[in-house]
């Protein structure tokens, strides 16, 4: 521990930085924890399964039977996350039903809510310098965006929607793209969205691997002119 005299020698800025460093070193979610490293390795199969975006992913949207194989396990894990995301998505629509938004905003608001929540999560933990949770927030955002890309790719079919909707439900992006006059380019917009989603997904995961396995292993450089105090 530093003595009182040691702290007297520090400027206000140095004391603030020292306090911040000590706080970060004591956090339970720092990337150097072995538990975080193990969790990242366990997450790896899901990351690459989701980036593959094959028929097994589409089957999760329509609630087909899940088998006890690799795809089945990935589907089961994916369903847990997607069902929570859908609650947020439908909440966005629900707010517009309460306050009587225009139909275009009502159709768009579900996707906006679905993407805004992970963005807020990222911002919240970025402000608190918790980069591990920022990286996990990036994966969460990308997972939502993968779904949005799939949803966009079927915009040409107004009656094609996730399995839990029925009755007279209309495809959100069929209405949105029709109103914008870009319905014939749904495949292009969906492809660009998917490219962004997979890039964010893999980028966030690689960043988490970096801060977990590489960043904290590097010796810290001392700032020029910084005095060395004995602990």
Characterise the protein shown here.
- The structure is a single chain.
- Helix content is 70%, strand content 0%.
- By secondary structure, the protein is mainly alpha-helical.
- The chain has one domain.
- The longest helix has 30 residues, at 70-99.
Give a short overview:
It contains nine helices and no strands. The protein is mostly helical and 231 residues long.
Number of domain units: 1
Helix vs. strand class? mainly alpha
> Strand count, sense and closure of the main sheet?
none
Calculate the terminal CA-CA distance, rounded to whole Å. 5 Å
Q: What is the overall pLDDT average?
A: 77
Query: How big a fraction of the residues is strand?
Result: under 5%
Query: Nearest-angstrom radius of gyration?
Result: 23 Å
What is the strand and helix layout of this fold?
Layout: H1 4-8, H2 12-26, H3 34-52, H4 55-61, H5 70-99, H6 103-127, H7 131-153, H8 172-180, H9 186-213
Helix pairs in contact: 3-5, 3-9, 4-5, 5-6, 6-7, 7-9
List keywords for this structure.
single chain, 231 residues, mainly alpha, 9 helices, 70% helix, disordered C terminus
